[in-house]
Amino acid sequence: MPRPGCSPDPSFWAGRRVLLTGHTGFKGSWLALWLLKLGARVTGVALDPDTSPSLFGSLDLAGELQDSRADIRDAGGLAALVAAADPEVVLHLAAQPLVRRSYLDPLGTWATNVMGSLHVLEALRCLDHPCAVVMVTTDKVYENREWCYGYRETDRLGGHDPYSASKAAAELAIASWRASFCGSAPHQTPQLAIATARAGNVIGGGDWAADRIVPDAMRACAAAEPLVLRNPMATRPWQHVLEPLCGYLSLAEALAADPAAHAEAWNFGPQLEANRPVGELVAALHQHWSGQWRDLSDPGAPHEGGLLHLVIDKASQRLDWQPRWDFATTVARTAAWYRQVAAGASPLDCCLADLDCYISNAIH
To answer: Would the pTM count as exceeding 0.85?
Structure first.
């Protein structure tokens, strides 16, 4: 059932200059679409999409925004693009986002997720006007103790795998940069308000990445082939992609209105009932699109966390943000998106239908 929550304020976003990094990715494409619907003037900075098909290509957004290609590891190139965009809001999503890929390319993962984030902040020093900056990390930044309790923003950071550790390191680097360089001293930059947003395990239509459970499951259903699960008992806080994106937009608005009160870390996760094992998620998807799966658990596989949950009281109480769709709704709309597109529906029409439904569920 839908749940109450705030919605982004169109009057805030209309005509506002927004720099969105990672706009060609799954979450970035959804966020670009939402920002354009709100009337923002969007500059996207990203690499080419790394999947085929890609949601960005399917939505045909390149002509609707300033579409720039750059690697955030290139500090000089990024600085030039930031200066040209002259943003009033920055939403930093660009990252190496896959746990298993981080084992194959640990140095690239660290360079992108840590130094790339610092390159974004350094590039923003050129601004001479206020700018709200939301730096997106992940729910995996916490030192995972495999306990049943949710993690709060004040809990210890850490990470076993290169991806998780690099994102935890990014949180520390961003906090250090904010403490050192945001302020009114001669060496500081007074116009920036910087927050970090921790969310993860998002699902929804248009994700085609490898080694992610939903696109793997949807590809298997479309091909009438069994899905192989690496760890069906691993529990994750599943949420629709629109949930954290709404949180990012709400946080940016709050940062712009009151920087001192909001320039810190924030969790954006689902309600507790959405914490489900991978096998249960797949079974729920198969209620909407028939399929099969088999367990291929491998004790020698690279480590991945088994149990994770976020406490979201802070965002609920101070941002009026609440997850709006429960687990059943999230799964149903996700499966419907893939089935409809497989049957020939327009990905753009399917995304807009989800977005309109999500917005209409808000209580204003």
So the answer is: yes
